[in-house]
Amino acid sequence: MHLLRGPIALLVLLLSALLAGCGSAPRGRDGPGANPPSNLASVPDAEPRIEPIRNGGPNKPYEVLGRNYVPMTADRPFRERGLASWYGRKFHGKRTASGEVYDMYAMSAAHPTLPLPSYARIRNPANGREVIVRVNDRGPFHAGRIVDLSYTAALRLDLLRGVAPVELERLTFEEIRSGAWRRDDSAVALARPLPAPSPPPVVPPPPPLETPPVLPVPAALPPDDPAPAEALPEAPAPRPLTSAERGWWIQLGAFRQREGAESFHRRVIAEVDWLAPVLGVFSDAALFRLQAGPYASRDEARAGAERVREALQLVPLVVERR
């Protein structure tokens, strides 16, 4: 997952592209950076190896935008078709859901429910190109999207121009152990030079959810107990919910674990530091809530929430504190 300073009108321009994810659509201002490596088109696939699947940690059940996600914890085949997006420099060097550092130039990806870590084959049916990626992050959380690719993986598949259909297949331990995942013809196809990518188009935000979300979190958000985000700024400690000022608030996320809320908080203030003074984590009996406010009226809060929705492509929750 990617909140009020100065006038309230500014407060809601929040978290541009935090969602990611972890992530998720080709961000309008995202990309490879000023000086990307010159050989990205020839970066080799991730080399699959057997890595134990741990229960808990990045494989805990979690909620995003009011939807429940239950990650796989068994070594079994998994295939699906859907849309792929990518994420680049805005998360480069930051922590993934697995606690590893995101490298946009490596062959990696984010997926909502595959075990972390996993290895998967991604195919672009439009041109037949395939890549093998290591799945070490969570996201994307937009309707229809099934995988968020690293910049290099998207380049290798010729998907930098926008969200596009792909086919995904998880590699099982037996396929890795036996070498059955290898395809002789894929090596030839992947060795062909890629055309220069066209600039990413402007991708319209998805339609609002029918049901307001209860527990929104960012696309590339570490679920609950990631490794410490050393590269991100420190977030203030949670405050009791009873200490929050009266008024209307925009809730950006609610977490069962304190670490999840604080990680999201750090990601937000790293992207939009001007929002940091009015953004806080509040704790009650069961949850840790990331909220921005207060607003003087319901209308102001709704207007702010709408701008948040447009910026993040999610639907925040407006709550009143009396």
What tags apply to this protein structure?
disordered N terminus; 322 residues; 24% strand; 2 domains; 6-stranded mixed β-barrel; elongated; alpha+beta; Barwin-like endoglucanases; 6 helices
Short description:
By secondary structure, the chain is an alpha+beta fold.
Instruction: Please indicate the percent range of residues in DSSP E strands (runs of 2 or more).
Output: 15-25%
Percent range of helical residues: 10-25%
**What is the CATH C level class of the largest domain, in words?**
Mainly Beta
Query: How many domains is the backbone divided into?
Result: 2
N-to-C span: 29 Å
Average pLDDT across residues? 76
Care to count the β-strands?
14
Number of helices: 6
Uncertain residue ranges: 1-29, 185-196, 209-232
Order of helices and strands: HEEEEEEEEHEHHEEHEEHE
State the shape: elongated
Instruction: Provide the structure class.
Output: alpha+beta
Please state the second-level CATH architecture of the largest domain: Beta Barrel
* Oligomeric state, counting identical vs distinct chains: single chain
